[in-house]
What does this fold into?
Amino acid sequence: MNNITITTMSRFFAFIYDAMLANTEEACLQDWRKELLANVYGDILEVGAGTGANVGFYPQTIRSLTVSEPDKFMRKKLKIKLSSNTIKQCVIKNFTMENIDLADESIDCVVSTLVCCSVKNPVKSLNQVYRVLKPGGLLVFIEHVAAENNPARLKWQNRINPIWKRISGNCHTNRETEKYIKQAGFTIKSIEKSSMRKAPAFVRPTIRGIAVK
Ligand SMILES: C[S@@+](CC[C@H](N)C(=O)[O-])C[C@H]1O[C@@H](n2cnc3c(N)ncnc32)[C@H](O)[C@@H]1O
It folds into this structure.
């Protein structure tokens, strides 16, 4: 794809993103975000923050929030969402998850929701998350993943992946994110595996939970 096509597609993706997810947000995602983000504290980094779907769910007690989003069209929407939030220390950055521009062991909790599917290199990204977290720090995640216990669905995920990732901002249908989290050195503290209702069947299997450094 040439640069003009990529820019047009990312502008379009940012434009439709909230509408595209609206039914799924109502069916389950908002509840999951609310429940998981109640656990964060201190200095927070949210990676791949998109249009800011998590912004309203951060506890008022956190010390600071750094949100990073590499896509400029998504970032524009994120800025609007953040302008009406009441978190005092809030910074927007544009780094990717593979290249987190923060000091080692400087963050209490990292939030990644529906991002590991889209990054170029999930292992490198999770290594970076591990690096910036303080010892005992938390990775809070919601990710759609490969259908590990459903061979028929996994077959479809593998088939559709080459097309889907091209039209949906590099979103992969078949990532084994739990494995990558463990490979990065994390201990899984809690994990739920369930279906993301009202989403296309090939992105329905999800994991959500908390991993500890
Ligand atoms: C499916 S959206 C999820 C947005 C948001 N986290 C949410 O829960 O609605 C994936 C996001 O990851 C971002 N992204 C893509 N590649 C990335 C990378 N390498 N590092 C960080 N974010 C990335 C995209 O720009 C997009 O905003």
The two ends are 38 Å apart (CA to CA). The helical segments are 3-37, 72-83, 122-132, 151-167, 177-183.
